[in-house]
Amino acid sequence: MESREIATKFVKFFEKNNHKIIESSSLLPADKTVLLTTAGMQQFAPYFKGEKNPEKDFKSRTLTSVQKCFRTSDLESVGDETHLTFFEMLGNFSIGDYFKKDAINYALKFLIEDLKLDKNRISITVFGGNNLIPKDFEAIELWKKQGIAEEKIFEFGEKENFWGPPGPTGPCGPCSELHYDLTKKPCNKGKKCGPNCECGRFLEIWNLVFMEYNFTDKQKYENLPLKNIDTGMGLERISMIVQNKKTLFETDIFQKIINNIQKIGYKRTEEAKRMERIIADHLRGSVFLISDAVRPSNIEQGYILRRVLRKSIIYLNLLGAEPNKILDLTELIINEYKTEYKDLQKNKKEILTIIKEEKNKFQKSLDKGFVEIKKIIEDTKKQKKKQLPTKEIFQLYDTYGFPFEITKEIANKEKLEVNEEEFYDMFKSHQEVSRAGVEKKFGGVGDFGEQVARQHTATHLLHQALREVLGKDVRQAGSDLTPERIRFDFNFNRALTEEERKKIEDIVNKKIKESIPVKCETKKFKDAQKEGFLAFFRDKYGEEVSTYSIGDFSKEVCAGPHVQNTKEIGKFRILKEKSSASGIRRIKAVLE
Q1: Fold for domain 3-249?
Q2: CATH 3.30.980.10 residue window(s) in the chain
Q3: How far apart are CA 66 and CA 325, in angstroms?
Q4: 248 and 242 in contact (C-beta within 8 Å)?
Q5: Helix (H, G, I), strand (E, B) or coil at 386
Q6: Residue closest to 462 by CA, chosen among 438, 437, 445, 479
Q7: Which residues of the chain does CATH 3.30.930.10 include?
Q8: What's the Cα-to-Cα distance from 289 to each of 74, 87, 233, 476, 541, rounded to whole Å?
Q9: Which of 78, 85, 532, 551 is the most buried (most CB within 10 A)?
Q10: Cα(95)–Cα(394) distance, integer angstroms
Q11: Measuring CA to CA, which residue among 458, 460, 436 is closest to residue 449?
Q12: Could you tell me if 458 and 591 are in contact, meaning their C-beta atoms sit under 8 angstroms apart?
């Protein structure tokens, strides 16, 4: 059974059971607190929260869809057998209609009767409770009534079996997952080898979320006005099981693109196979991101696109591909999906153009970098050393923008080592030196510390004020601070009205007068993202970042420095607002 047949069977199954089929929404979500669409439920969030009426908009409270999704949480795991960034999620949803009993019944019935899976190979996980939300006894009993043996029902905590919200706030609830036994052979843990075991024996295939809570901006769980069902099953994973394949990349979904990559002609080592998978996943994701109006940049969704696209380019280089191989693969992906996603064919020319431009731009840096890394490797081998000199590989990164991960790949290929810790220490030192350069620009550490701290915090207030007045799509596109003025660039496609300009200025000054404490914390970058901190120029961040909160008004990742309280800033005044580039506006302001 091919993947498209599985997807069709899924929506038709639920259509027969009174569900309305809904088209996939864009990878750019309506909810601007979330970077990308990561789940099928996101387009239905306002209905789950009771803000919109599904009967009015969909003529139904029960819905089903095949949703395009892109998750960055598994980015570093891509290359193994089961992880992806872009995937298609099969989902069924109930907005105040059926709840746990029917959701469980539908899931088992579809898997066993329509897909002919072996019920004996299915195990279940349920939420075991915490100090706020009780254990899901109801789900346990319902699974037992469906014939799932007690020893195949496992309890887990919040991390594994409580879903959502997809952003800092929103609908969420305990969940029950269906796991499939791939090997029927326990690892050395014996009877303790079950779902979520690190050995990989079980694969999670379907997540049933019993959505009954709303997580508020006050960090509290409140009951939703209606009890809802939100389920998600990755098409790629269920295809792997139905087609009896050992990896996602052996399914019909990826075979054409993998076979095309192999035409490059290289030895198929385990490392080469990993590169094939990364190229196939990342390029497929890039095609869909571009079609949904994401463009390569150094911030937000554009940064994610640039990262996965450039990684595809890197690995094609390492496999020895011709320069335009990436365009052949792009066309193949578009042709594979053009029936289901007609926008791909419609946007084909633009997709190819953007990928070509990014490839040409990045390839220049790569070509220079490859020449230099070759010299470094030759010198290292001449000196009979086993480790590449950290200072030289950092200069390679700093001068040519040559990615450190390529250096690691090449070093590994040449059976040489790199000192990652030393590299990242050097990276941090470089950032500090850069900041010291700014100090010099401001005429001394004392003057710099006081003035730039005031200005830095003011730009955070300005940025949030712009977003409140002009919309959440507004984001920083650059800034420059001198002792005399603040310059702040942001994306917007027209001049501000006098009324808007005054409103923005008033909001900033109001927050200054409120004497709000400015809180600085060091967090892991991924945790800061989850907590809703705005982050820009992500390629400049390490694993740990400094975050600044100005009360509940502003949350950003920033290198600082900042004042301790907004009252230290003084009065903020906008001098001028004008165009800086196409789609970019520039504000010049002063502190008085």
Answers
A1: BirA Bifunctional Protein; domain 2 (3.30.930)
A2: 445-591
A3: 30
A4: no
A5: coil
A6: 479
A7: 3-249
A8: 17, 12, 21, 21, 23
A9: 85
A10: 53
A11: 436
A12: yes
Give the DSSP per-residue string, 436-474: HHHHHHTTSHHHHHHHHHHHHHHHHHHHHHHHHHH-TT-
pLDDT tens digits in sequence order for the chain, 592 residues long: 999 999 999 999 999 999 999 999 999 988 777 789 988 988 998 898 888 999 999 999 999 999 999 998 777 788 888 889 999 999 999 999 999 999 999 999 999 999 999 999 999 999 998 888 889 999 999 999 999 999 999 999 888 899 877 667 788 899 999 999 999 888 888 888 889 888 888 999 999 999 988 888 777 888 888 899 999 999 999 999 999 999 999 999 999 999 999 999 988 888 889 999 999 999 999 999 999 999 988 777 888 898 899 889 989 988 989 989 999 999 999 999 999 999 999 999 999 999 999 999 888 888 888 889 999 999 999 999 999 999 998 888 877 778 787 888 888 888 999 888 888 778 767 655 555 554 454 444 444 466 778 888 999 999 999 999 999 888 888 787 776 788 898 888 899 998 999 999 999 999 999 989 988 888 888 888 888 888 765 545 566 778 889 999 999 888 667 888 898 898 999 999 988 877 789 999 988 7
Q: Select from 325, 311, 291 the least CA-distant residue to 362.
A: 311
Whose structure tokens read 């830095």?
A: 456
